[in-house]
Amino acid sequence: MIKKIAFLIINFLLSYITFSQPFKGQIDSTLLPTIAPAHYVPEYDIDVAVDPNAWIKEKRGMHVAFGSEDELYFRKEVPHTNDNTTWESTGWKGERLNTQIVVWSPDTLEQVRFTVSDLKNANGQVINKDNIWLKKVCYVLANFPYGSNEPDCSPTPYKNGFLMPDRFEDFDRFDVPGRTTRPVWLSINIPSNAQPGSYTGAVEINTKSEHATLKVTINVQNQLLPKPHDWDYRLDLWQNPWVIANYYHVKPWGNEHKALLKKHMQLYADAGGTYITTYGVHSPWGDNEYAIEGGMIEWIKRKDGSWKFDYNIFDQYVELAMSLGIDKAITLYTPLPWGERFRYMDEATGNYAYERWLPTSDTFKTNWNAFLTDFRTHLEKKGWFSKTYIGINENAMEQTLSAIKVVKAHSKDWKLTYAGNWHKELDTLLTDYCFLYGNEASVEEVKARAARGQTTTYYVCCNPAKPNNFLFSPPIEGRWQSWYAAAHGYSGFLRWAYDAWPEDPMRDARYGSWAAGDCYLVYPGGNSCIRFEKLREGIVDFEKIKIIRRLARTSNDEAVKKMMQAFDEHLQTFNNEKTFNENKLKDDIAKGKAMLNELSNKLAK
């Protein structure tokens, strides 16, 4: 009993220390917005500095330097950049290289604007400045402090909020209020036809009264990264197209909606997006989003009790995604909606009816057999059957196995995908199996699936706390995820969700009990962010690893064989990771990148 009381006292004290100390970007709970503001607010500015005295030590006027794409620079904190005025990076033809430029001042800076030059090599060859883009990094409200280990799908224990740099925004110029910092994301897309060599250029930064110049050097290697459409990586980010119509107040599936969707989905295509998320039933996740996923296929019960199905919305969305190059897989959700609730139109009354069809029931089997027969006919007419998966979301094992049995009894040709914990009894039944990180099959079991022609991926969601893509996650974790995929033998990565926006996604990422950023990776207007670009960096690394492996297998160079052996040994670091220390993750990826660069040069033709 004494031990128990002591344990409770220690926990209380630790909790008090944890939740009373200041964190970067912190906002006092009394100032937190509970509803959207009554007028336009570009971003919240109600955070406080952890060390306000640090600004007193800063020399007056504009400070500008290259930062790192792996750091978050907080609005009220003096950044640690070592005043770097040069940036050098190495990449393949077709690769995107990223960094951040950080502007800060103890005084207000007015009309900060950037000008980039072409990049030129010693032979006069040019990477045109049109391949360089700059985005202002904006601050968004989170419900956990930076690097928190605590998220587990439960409500946050913190009463305060935290402003995190994440969202990208186009800009012509901007002001920097005194004693604040503004990061700017810099990306260089190396053209696929660029000549190998070293290219240099400059970034000019001007205000109304000050000027600075930063130098850029890009080393282009003689290796070619394919276009995103041709990447092997299986990227599955679940989409909700209704959220776009809801946010912009436009008619779903009208011309305005589809124009917005194209811009919105282009980011996914440019990251190598593979799966098109479709919905065969209405609101499969139990109405738990700000914009409900309507069914893309209308189930209609005729007066005689037979079924007919309207594929109009399904076809529109699939065709739109495919027009952008997202055309390798279609997932239809789901025979297992939450609560086994199904909606259909009753032709006799014109009313919607809701019924519960348990997968173990004859009603489920009869109705889904009718649907699957009709759906297959439709898919075959469209030429889509071979790339369509029936999505079996995680449920009680009896229900899961019953649903799979019904689908497979209808036709062994149906492909099945499932996201959930590793269950041996599901292994051979699933064409594509996606494990929750930490509840996975072994490397050997993943290899066995590959040998059978099955694909295997993994995912994170509102848990685990690390590695993740939360608003407050260290950026390196997003890149680490694909290095882990390569080490474990996975085909790719899944995440819910791509775009399940809360009420005010541009400024406030809090979403019920879930950790901020869990539910979306891109912003309204087709705008990317630090989290999405870091995820994309890792996907590119994964592709480069696969290409280097293929090249190394055909090489007779003993040095190459030794280098590949050393690289494979290093990859095991990612399988063995337990602590997720931020600096260790950075070091592990930096070492892996250096080894890839050396192999790239060695294997260049």
Automatic annotation (TrEMBL):
Transmembrane segments: none annotated. Pfam families: GH123_cat, Glyco_hydro_123_N_2. Residues 66-206 form the Glycoside hydrolase 123 N-terminal domain. InterPro entries: GH123_cat, Glyco_hydro_123_N_2. Residues 238-547 form the Glycoside hydrolase 123 catalytic domain. This is DUF4091 domain-containing protein.
